[in-house]
């Protein structure tokens, strides 16, 4: 009998067709509505594999219900939605989709930086609302990006290619990370510094760190107060790294100049949220990896990982490495 895969979100027919060659496929039929918790808990009971998205919470309750579950392929590089300890304890492999989304996510992070600095969203709304009366010297004047200092918090794969883009804009690159990144230092002239030094020196503070117990709530009022008044804060990793009340207060008080946010504490964020009322906030609905090419590549990576597990090969992008040891 073919292994059973439960797909927690409607995905394109071509990917479903690929899965159907080797698996019994069951899928939540909606593209823009999350699978209800009780349905996930019911479906996981029979599933040998789950193909999931970041809004699915995969905790001990899910892993305990999944008696036959062997693998979770999460369509994201981040896996803070998954209790890895519980997965390993239940002998479930957890796989993510790094690499295929690195350049695409870096493009979006840099685009968000540019859009925020140059007030592009405000300007686009301005012209469509018929407000453009005349060329004027300081109309929608933003702030320069070139030759400024970018401070990257989280110099992983995405951080490194954001730095590469910044180098093309003649920016000075500083970074803070758990470990030194020698390649970025040698190839891009990136300079390692403490978080406090970075906050004090950067014109653009760009958060690309994964959400972990160490990074949760990393940006509080104090961190914003340490930034320059002209600083622009960009977050393209995970919302809970930032205390949003503190960010709002810092923006209101003029302690920093603007923010570009692709991620939020609660997703989807409420349209009435105070942050979304501010002119100097550019907000995007978590679209870092959202190009057609990359999203398909992420789904293919999920399929490759399922194939590896059911063929008893080591998957390419396994997150809980202890899973391999537990198989023998
Ligand atoms: C998206 O946020 C991802 O982790 O891939
Ligand atoms: C992973 O791809 C990262 O950028 O941290």
TrEMBL record:
The residue ranges of the D-isomer specific 2-hydroxyacid dehydrogenase catalytic domain are 5-320
Origin superkingdom = Bacteria
Q: Does the keyword Calcium apply?
A: no
The record's SUPFAM superfamilies line, in alphabetical order, gives: Formate/glycerate dehydrogenase catalytic domain-like, NAD(P)-binding Rossmann-fold domains
Q: Which CDD domains match?
A: GDH
Q: Per the UniProt record, which residue ranges are transmembrane? A: none
Residue span of the signal peptide, if any? Answer: none
What region holds the D-isomer specific 2-hydroxyacid dehydrogenase NAD-binding domain? 110-288
Q: Name one Pfam family in it.
A: 2-Hacid_dh_C
Q: Which keywords belong to this entry? A: Oxidoreductase
Give the family this protein belongs to, as stated in its UniProt record. Answer: Belongs to the D-isomer specific 2-hydroxyacid dehydrogenase family.
This chain belongs to which protein, by name? Glyoxylate reductase
The opening ranks of the lineage are: Bacteria, Bacillati, Bacillota, Bacilli, Bacillales
């Amino acid at each position: 009998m073919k292994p059973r895969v439960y797909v927690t979100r409607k995905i394109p027919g071509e990917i479903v067709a690929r899965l159907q060659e080797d698996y019994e496929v069951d899928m939540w039929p909606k593209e823009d509505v999350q699978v209800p918790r009780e349905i996930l808990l019911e479906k996981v009971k029979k599933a040998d594999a789950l193909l999931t998205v970041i809004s699915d919470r995969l905790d001990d309750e899910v892993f305990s219900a999944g008696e036959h579950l062997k693998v979770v392929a999460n369509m994201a590089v981040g896996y803070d939605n998954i209790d890895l300890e519980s997965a390993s304890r239940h002998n479930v492999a957890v796989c993510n989709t790094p690499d295929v989304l690195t350049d695409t996510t870096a493009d979006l992070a840099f685009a968000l930086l540019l859009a925020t600095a140059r007030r592009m969203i405000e300007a686009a709304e301005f012209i469509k609302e018929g407000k453009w009366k005349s060329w004027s010297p300081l109309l929608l004047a933003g702030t320069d990006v070139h030759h400024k200092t970018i401070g990257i918090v989280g110099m992983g794969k995405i951080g490194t290619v954001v730095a590469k883009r910044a180098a093309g804009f003649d920016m000075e690159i500083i970074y803070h990370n758990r470990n030194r990144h020698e390649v970025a230092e040698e190839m891009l002239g990136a300079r390692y510094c403490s978080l406090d030094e970075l906050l004090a020196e950067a014109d653009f503070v760009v958060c690309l760190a994964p959400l972990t117990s160490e990074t949760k709530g990393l940006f509080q009022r104090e961190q914003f107060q340490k930034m320059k008044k002209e600083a622009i804060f960009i977050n393209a990793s995970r919302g809970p790294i930032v205390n949003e009340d503190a960010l709002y207060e810092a923006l209101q008080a003029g302690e920093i100049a603007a923010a570009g946010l692709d991620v939020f504490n609660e997703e989807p964020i409420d349209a009435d949220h105070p942050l979304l009322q501010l002119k100097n906030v550019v907000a995007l609905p978590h679209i870092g990896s959202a190009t057609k090419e990359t999203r398909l590549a992420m789904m293919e990576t999920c399929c490759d990982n399922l194939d590896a597990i059911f063929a008893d090969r080591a998957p390419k992008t396994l997150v809980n490495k202890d899973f391999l040891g537990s198989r023998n």
